[in-house]
Structure formats: structure tokens, C-alpha cells
Please model this.
Amino acid sequence: MVPAVSGIIYGESGAAATSGPTLRQKLREGGVAYGASCSLGSPFIAEIMVRAGLDYIYIDQQHGLTSFDTLVHILRAIDHTATAAIVRVLSNDAGLIGQVLDAGADGVIVPMVNSVEDARRAAAACRYAPLGSRSFGAFRASMTRGSDIHRANERVMCFVMIESEAGLRAAGDIATTPGVDGVYIGQADLAVSLGLPSQVRIQPGRHQEAVDTILRACKAAGIVAGLSGHPVEMRDAGFRLITMATDRSMIEAGVKDLKAKMALARG
Model:
């Protein structure tokens, strides 16, 4: 039951060299990656976040405030650090996926993947032929990640989101889709699809069972399962890509603390 990258240095050629394991290597070796979500569209917040030594920053273009222009600045803030840049794109669209990868993202999180066909489409958009259908033209990525298509196919990570009852039914097939590196569970939308309150936290009963089903499918397929939650609890449950907080939640927590201190001072 589930409880309720390093040191990238770029040479003159633009090809990336690493001084330690990349996020992909860490996950392949069975490690657990910890990250935070950047949803407010602020490059400065992203720059502060990377100082925490996060394995990845999850940049949210689906529900967050990050435009493409802002994304490029956020990627610049993350470049040359030990943190990988993973972008949740607006939708399962090859053009949008290719655009963020061309801008220099290390991987994508693709929302609303409800079938094996959806999963295949997402994986294909992430990789060049013969492994996929990504269009060649890594505009900014060629300067920061190199332009070798074989290295790009190996480096880029594709995480698909299961967040519906249809996706839940297809979890086994989605998890075994070639090119899918992991499944990121969208707890809130999954709850809504099951007729439950829209909460990110894992709810007992059907919601818990659904999350467990997806986790088991990922383990059986030998891929990564990820979600947002408490790092220790989710690690112990078997998740290996764990988003611990959002920039918004951290700011709100700071404001709440400030409000409490002000109330105490005012007596």
C-alpha cells in the first residue's frame, strides 16, 4: 500500500559532458530522484531552486504560468548545474514536445495519456528516426546538449501521465510501451476521473488502489513511477521520481509563517 543530474559542463562544441551521473543514469541504476515544480514562470525562482541540489526541476506549462519565451530563460537558469530540466507540456502534441526539447529540456512529462496509442505518440515525438518521429532542428539544444541524434535519443526522457480511469485500465500496456521511461501519476485528475474529490494527496479506498495498480505496472515493466508527495513516504512506497513541492506552495508556506509571526508580534 502507498501511504496517504549531475554536473553538466558544456564544451566549445556544445556537446554535454558530465562530471557525475545524469538523471537518466541515476534512475537506470535504481536510484530515487527528488525534484520540485516551477509553475510560476520565474527564471529567478528556478535559479534559487537549483541551489538546493535538486535532481530535477519540473517546469509546468500545462497548468503553470510558463510561456515558451519564459521557458527559455528558465532553462538558461538551470543550465550548467547538477539539475535536470523536465517540462510538462501543454498536451500530447508532437510540435509542442519537439519545441521544448529543441529549446534544451532534458525530458518531458506528457499529460492525459489514456491509451497505449497515446503513449506511443508521446514516445515517438521525443526521438528521432528510426526510434521515433521527432523533427530535426534542435535549435538551442544543439548549443547546450549537442546535435548528435543518437545521443539525443539516448539522453531525452519521456514520462507519460496516467490520470484517468481510461489510463488506469491501460496502465500495463502504457508502462510497457517502448520509449516510455516512466509514468507520472496525476493524483488530482485521477481522483476526479474516479468520482472523488480533486485532491493531490492519495485518498484511501479506490484512489489508493488505483495508485497502487499504476505503481505495480511500472515495477513489472521495469520503468520509473513518479508523482508529487512526501519524499520519504513516496520513496518507501517504491516511487523513484518524487516532486516534493511547488514554487507556489513554498511561497505560500513562507507567507503563512510570516503571518503567524506578525500575529505573535502584535499580541
Q: What stands out?
A: Residues 247-266 form the longest helix (20 residues). Confidence is low (pLDDT under 50) at residues 2-19. Residues 8-266 form a domain with the TIM Barrel fold (CATH 3.20.20.60).
